[in-house]
Amino acid sequence: MFPDVTDSTGNIVQTDLQHISLAPGYYLVSYKVSAIFPSPNYMQVTPSYNGTSHLETGIYFATSANGSSATGSAFFIINAPASTVFSLTYSGSSDAREGEINLTFLKLNRGI
């Protein structure tokens, strides 16, 4: 992942290409994943934060034909009572090609 806009307050910091550090607080998270699979496949993307994976905010998509596209999106609020690291994990029956991820964080003006 590559940042388009960085957070000058330091609450949302990309620490490497796969991890985002979040300061304590509430965050609105939006993400969309799309990819093309050369053969039938499934795609599961699972967010992790507060030290655990969250299947309830993950996406799942199965394809049944060669050259099919798969896409999914989710919106949710994270309550981070302490600093946490956010990441997205992909699992599927094969690798995708020509994929894209859009990920947005908005820190909410709400006390912990």
Describe it:
The protein has 112 residues and is mainly beta. It has a single domain, classed as Jelly Rolls (Sandwich). It is 0% helix and 59% strand. The two termini are 28 Å apart.
Quick overview of this protein structure:
The chain is mainly beta and 112 residues long. It has strands at residues 12-14, 20-22, 25-37, 42-49, 52-53, 59-62, 68-80, 84-92, 97-107. β1 (12-14) and β2 (20-22) form a beta hairpin.
Task: Detail the topology: elements first, then pairings.
Layout: E1 12-14, E2 20-22, E3 25-37, E4 42-49, E5 52-53, E6 59-62, E7 68-80, E8 84-92, E9 97-107
Antiparallel strand pairs: 1-2, 2-8, 3-7, 3-9, 4-5, 4-6, 4-8
Q: Tally the helices: what do you get?
A: 0
Most strands sheet:
6 strands, antiparallel
CATH class descriptor? Mainly Beta
Structural class: mainly beta
- The coarse overall form would be elongated
CATH topology tier name: Jelly Rolls
Task: Give the overall average pLDDT.
Answer: 90
Rg of Cα set: 15 Å
Number of strands: 9
How far do the termini sit from each other?
28 Å
What is the H-and-E element order? EEEEEEEEE
Taken as a percent bin, the fraction of beta residues is over 45%
Uncertain runs: none
Mind telling me which CATH architecture this is? Sandwich
Number of domains: 1
Query: What is the helix content?
Result: under 10%
Oligomerization: single chain
